[in-house]
Amino acid sequence: xxxxxxxxxxxxxxxxxxxxxxxxxxxxxxxxxxxxxxxxxxxxxxxxxxxxxxxxxxxxxxxxxxxxxxxxxxxxxxxxxxxxxxxxxxxxxxxxxxxxxxxxxxxxxxxxxxxxxxxxxxxxxxxxxxxxxxxxxxxxxxxxxxxxxxxxxxxxxxxxxxxxxxxxxxxxxxxxxxxxxxxxxxxxxxxxxxxxxxxxxxxxxxxxxxxxxxxxxxxxxxxxxxxxxxxxxxxxxxxxxxxxxxxxxxxxxxxxxxxxxx
Length: 262
Ligand SMILES: [Zn+2]
What we know:
This protein is mainly alpha-helical.
């Protein structure tokens, strides 16, 4: 799949690595030094003609070592999440800077699809911005599940974060005061309101409110408003604003970390 960097001949300028499953990789020392200031750059000076055993699989090292060489690096979009997670761990462990950067970018891109895995990775490596992105999408999980995944300070912060989301009162139909809808009866209004309320309630059970998704597809319906001055659309706008204000008032996960933990 990716460029496999292997050389048949023995060369003093190369370090030979063996994967956990027995594949050999001959990598130039100079490249290791220029892309990493971690163990790859420092640890193998004295080893000549010996094979360095690594704990990662051939599959992981195959991708990792492509980042040690110049050229266009893979963007990892075709890597399954489990493989990406293993690669990200290896990149961090050996501090292969270009691989660390691409893995982190990729994690940002897929935080909605794999929030738990991304949160675990972000917590482990101290990426607070990424923790904050993924955390809202993990709120359907239990505190017990998080205990197995997160560091102690983050577990505590996550429990507070979840509690705050769970106890937030979300504005419902009756709370939306909109004086722009015409007094004339509109048959669209109760339908649209029913949909929004149902979606909010469904979100509440999973812990997280994705406001944009709640209003998906409703703009079209509200254009059929039978009232004057597009009253349904105005009500929806007011509702959306009210929900967004509530969401914005909740601090991100990192906001629940105590100063002592930081
Ligand atoms: Zn209406």
